[in-house]
Amino acid sequence: MNGSERINGYNLVALRNHNSPLYKYGVIKIKTKNLHMKKMILILATASLSCTNTMNPTKTFDHSLFIAQDHTGENLFSSNIEGPAVDKDGKLFVVNYQKDGTIGHVNPDGTVELFVTLPEGSIGNSIQFNAAGNMLVADFSKHNVLEVDTKTKAVSVYCHDDRFNQPNDICINKKGIVFASDPDWKNKKGQLWKIGLNKKAVLLKSNMGTTNGICLSPDEKTLYLNESIEKNIWAFDVDADDNISNQRLFTSFTGHGMDGMKCDTKGNLYVTRYGKGTVAIFSPAGKLLKEVELRGKKVSNITFGGKDFKTCFVTLQDRKCMEKFRTDTPGR
What we know:
With 332 residues, this protein is mainly beta. The chain has two domains: 4-55, no CATH class; 69-326, 6 Propeller (Neuraminidase), CATH 2.120.10. The chain is built from three helices and 27 strands. The protein has a four-stranded antiparallel β-sheet with strand order 4-27-26-25, with no helix packed on it. A four-stranded antiparallel β-sheet has the order 5-6-7-8, with no helix packed on it. It is globular and about 50 Å long. It starts with a strand and ends in a 6-residue tail after the last strand.
């Protein structure tokens, strides 16, 4: 409708100011005393607006909050889909595209293409980007942290230590210091490592439970680390020398476990609940703020991306795909 139009001889005046809340919700003025015709016109107008929204799924998604939808098709990845990460240019990468031992580049439209194949026997589980723009990959099967040159796609060993069980998840601070979780699933134990700029590993904590998801707070003064089988999330203070102290229980769960974690810029912690199919969002004080329901159940990890960094991309191992939802606060 443009301005004022007529339907079956009745004058229909649409509010065309796009900034008007009346226009936003599809409110119109109908100049007729015929109640039956008025109802019919309202139904037609509502249907028209509904069709317009359906034809603009991207716009609808951008204005939604905490409502999950598919980002990629199902069965594009192996059952070890994990470790989503976004580079400085906003490009999204995920491990184990089509088969184990690969890394896929996920386009904004949800299509995926092979980015790199890791050396024989290596399987990635987590990705982070360093200041040089290169990819650091936790290689659990070969007990390494790998480095991928994103320009040449050359793959090298960034750090190897015979004491590693199987590096699982990693996070990196602004100085380039890497923190790595290192579970021993068979014996239900785990370790926590620090990898310095010299690419040498320093053991920060041993005799933990099955250490898994790991991330830093926005100010990088708190390190969060979870134990999947024991269902605990621990918080540590991080000092100027990147050492940890003051271990304390942040929160714990009953029932389903957990996997990857990330923080937003307010310090809220987003925790993937593996088996439950949700992302639990906690305040820095440990209060559960919200739980976002996903379509799959085996959610393995999460990252922030999109133009405003307010889109959460999550990996689902049962569906072998990615889902996404919008949040009100950008990621760290």
